[in-house]
Design a protein that fits this description.
alpha+beta; 4-stranded antiparallel beta sheet; 34% helix; 164 residues
């Protein structure tokens, strides 16, 4: 799927229902999707293709259970950089994107510059990743680590609101 941004046309209530359905089940058939959103197959398929083409739908993924693939250790890491000059931020951004254990990286305002969401097998693996990889990312001056005790909610589904 292309990441090229295209001007998005108006998203109506039918599009919203379609988006909610495919977030719940990305493998739903066009026939079932059309039935759930009360459209015939061809208009449903056209809407789906338009939403993909416009970049509203960025892709389809499998939702894996981290415990079943030995990645149940979840940690958030706050990162403070030595400098927040544009080139330092860009170097950090580029480097963090290639570390597969870092699931998310958000630039923050406040006391720290970034918040990382990291998954590993266990604390031993995390400690090695922190010392050998994260601490060596460009410009890292300081980190603070927050191991997760319990995941209460973890979703990628977005609430698709009506404009009303």
């Amino acid at each position: 799927m292309s990441t090229k941004q295209v001007h998005t046309s108006h998203i109506d209530d039918i599009d919203r229902r379609l988006l909610m359905e495919i977030q719940a089940d990305g493998r739903i058939s066009i026939v079932e999707l059309a039935e759930r959103i009360n459209l015939s197959k061809t208009p449903c398929q056209k809407r789906l293709k338009r939403l993909e083409r416009e970049g509203v739908i960025r892709g389809y993924r499998a939702d894996l259970d981290p415990r079943k693939i030995d990645c149940s250790h979840l940690v958030f890491v706050q990162v403070k950089l030595e400098s927040t000059r544009r080139d330092c931020l860009e170097q950090f951004n580029k480097a963090v994107k290639v570390v597969p254990q870092i699931l998310a990286c958000h630039m923050l305002s406040g006391g720290y510059d970034y918040l990382l969401k990291v998954r590993t097998k266990d604390m031993t693996n995390f400690r090695a990743l922190l010392g050998d990889v994260i601490a060596d990312l460009p410009g890292v001056a300081q980190t603070s680590t927050y191991p997760v005790m319990e995941e209460v909610k973890d979703t990628t589904a977005l609430a698709v609101y009506s404009e009303d």
